[in-house]
């Protein structure tokens, strides 16, 4: 599943990440895109599939122990690697902060119907 997903994302989106996935109506506009290397982009989707940013944060919280460390024993080995690849081994708090800063405002606008643009099927 994840290998297919990675291949799919690399092929379909290159390094342009859609913060709100096209598959659920995320528009193809600059505001909805985040530039990543292909490796980081693929790793992010291996971890969080096409979930909304708020769902990714929820998953990170489940993966975080009471000391703020990643519960790597709870994660699949390939997801531990994907975490390193996507976030340079950052702490859960750092990654949540990154998502809150870069992705959550776009999600909030989308959920209010204010993100605009037109859905382009690729
Ligand atoms: Zn993406």
Task: Summarize the model shown.
With 122 residues, the chain is mainly α. The chain is built from six helices and two strands; from the N terminus they run αββααααα. Helix 1 crosses helix 2 and helix 3 packs antiparallel against helix 5.
What would your notes on this structure say?
Strands 1-2 form a two-stranded antiparallel ribbon. The protein has six helices and two strands; from the N terminus they run H-E-E-H-H-H-H-H. The chain has 122 residues and is mostly helical. The mean pLDDT is 88. It has one domain (2-111). The site of zinc ion (ZN) has 6 residues, from helix 1, strand 1 and helix 2.
Task: Tally the structural domains.
Answer: 1
Task: Please compute the radius of gyration using only Cα atoms.
Answer: 14 Å
Succession of helices and strands: HEEHHHHH
In whole angstroms, the N-to-C terminal distance is 21 Å
Catalogue the ligands: zinc ion
Main sheet: strands, sense, barrel: 2 strands, antiparallel
* Proportion of residues in helical segments: 40-55%
Morphology call: globular
Mean pLDDT across the residues is 88
Structural class: mainly alpha
Q: What is the helix tally?
A: 6
How many strands in all?
2
Question: Could you tell me the strand content as a percent range?
Answer: under 5%
**Oligomer state of the chains in this structure:** single chain
Give start-end ranges of low-pLDDT stretches: none
Order of strands in the sheet with the most strands?
A: 1-2
């Amino acid at each position: 599943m994840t290998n297919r997903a990675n291949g799919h994302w690399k092929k379909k989106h290159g390094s342009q990440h859609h913060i709100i996935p096209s598959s659920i109506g995320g528009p193809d506009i600059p505001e909805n895109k985040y530039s990543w290397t292909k490796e980081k982009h693929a790793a992010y989707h291996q971890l969080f599939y096409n979930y909304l940013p708020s769902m990714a944060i929820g998953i990170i919280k489940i993966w975080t122990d009471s000391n703020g460390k990643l519960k790597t024993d709870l994660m699949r080995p390939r997801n531990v690697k994907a975490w390193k690849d996507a976030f340079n081994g950052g702490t859960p708090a750092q990654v949540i902060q990154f998502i809150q800063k870069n992705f959550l405002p776009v999600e909030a606008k989308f959920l209010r119907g204010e993100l605009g643009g037109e859905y382009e099927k690729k």
